[in-house]
Amino acid sequence: MMSFSKRTVIASLFAAFLFPALPSIAATQQPAAVQQNPGAEIVVTVNGKKITQEDLDTATNNLMPLVTYHNSVSEERLKGIQKRALENIVNGELMYKYAKDNKLDNVDKKEIDQQVKDLKKKLPKGDSLDKVLKRSNITLADLRDDFKKDIVVARVSKSKSEELRKKAEQSVDEAFMRDYYKKNLEKFKEPEQIHLRSILIKADPSGGQRVWNESKKKAEEIAKLAKEGKDFGKLAQERSEDPFAKNGGDMGWAHKGSLFPEIDEAAAKLKPGEVSDPIMTIYGYHVVKLDGRKPPVQKKFEELNQKKLESELEEKEHKKLWKSWLTGLKNASKVEYFKKFD
């Protein structure tokens, strides 16, 4: 769980010394006080606690590597990152309230002392904690309170996550997996397979239209010979310019959709034994022969990789339980949004 407190403002100051602040998505019409200090704009309140644009900008910066400050960030991408940052902030506030309501917010003073010491070690040379606190407009007491909140939220997050993971593991038994299998048969169906042989006549993308025309002409000659009965495998060995040439152009069996779309589309129109017309791809012109076709096959439950399915479903169930828990906390609280990122 990422820190959501004012303490992250201090961490962001290191970046602020070298890089300009990320732009905010602020409304054009704001009260005079907000126009003078855009960071004071309220973006959300959680049980009466105000979260400002400054808080959101800091949380957003913490989700992005420092290197991105050198590059332009599209508004669409920024909105997505800000939305995730805001979700982190809100969830942190909700978990802290949960901890207080359940008397899980006790923190040893020594833990906070250590956090303060660690922060002092990270300050730029020549700077001091007092100076940074003054620039951030917060007191040492504020900082210690925020450290406490961070510790409590991280502890609750870890504890609850472990609890829900155990619950997910207990619920995902064989009956659960069989039920999921029956309700999602399409996910466990092997797609149609095709067995192709291929001949490629390459065309240099930088060679111009003349080169592509020559490639197409050669491919047309090969397709004509193959359709007249010339052995496709020998043609591939003699003329093809792809790695399959030495094996007579044999590409083996492939799932539908795993090849170039152009080849897939052409192969779909062929019957076993038929040869295609030249097919253009980024590499040049292909001529393919369909050697065989296997229809889609529904895999039986017993044929599945049980361990892999179990692991995937446990992770899916864990995420579902985690989301449900956070939604419950949110529904039991008053969360008001003043800015949208959709």
Q: What do these coordinates show?
A:
The chain is α+β, with helices and mostly antiparallel strands and 342 residues long. It folds into two domains: 157 residues, Porin chaperone SurA, peptide-binding domain (Triger factor/SurA peptide-binding fold), CATH 1.10.4030.10; 104 residues, Roll (Chitinase A, domain 3). It is 52% helix and 13% strand. The strands form three sheets. Strands 5-4-7-6 form a four-stranded antiparallel beta sheet, sandwiched between helices. A hairpin with a 2-residue loop joins strand 1 and strand 2. Helix 4 packs across helix 7 and helix 7 crosses helix 12. The N terminus is likely disordered.
Quick rundown:
This protein has 342 residues and is α+β, with helices and mostly antiparallel strands.
Percent of residues in beta strands? 5-15%
- Can you count the beta strands? 9
Q: Cα distance, first to last residue?
A: 23 Å
Low-confidence stretches: 1-9, 11-35, 66-70
CATH topology of the largest domain: Triger factor/SurA peptide-binding fold
Taking the sheet with the most strands, its summary is: 4 strands, antiparallel
How are helices and strands ordered from N to C?
HHEEHHHHHHEEHHEHEEEHE
Kindly state the mean pLDDT as a whole number? 86
CATH level-two architecture of the largest domain: Orthogonal Bundle
In which order are the strands of the major sheet placed?
5-4-7-6
Provide the helix percentage. Answer: 40-55%
Tell me the name of the CATH homologous superfamily of the largest domain: Porin chaperone SurA, peptide-binding domain
- Computed structural class: alpha+beta
- Radius of gyration equals 31 Å
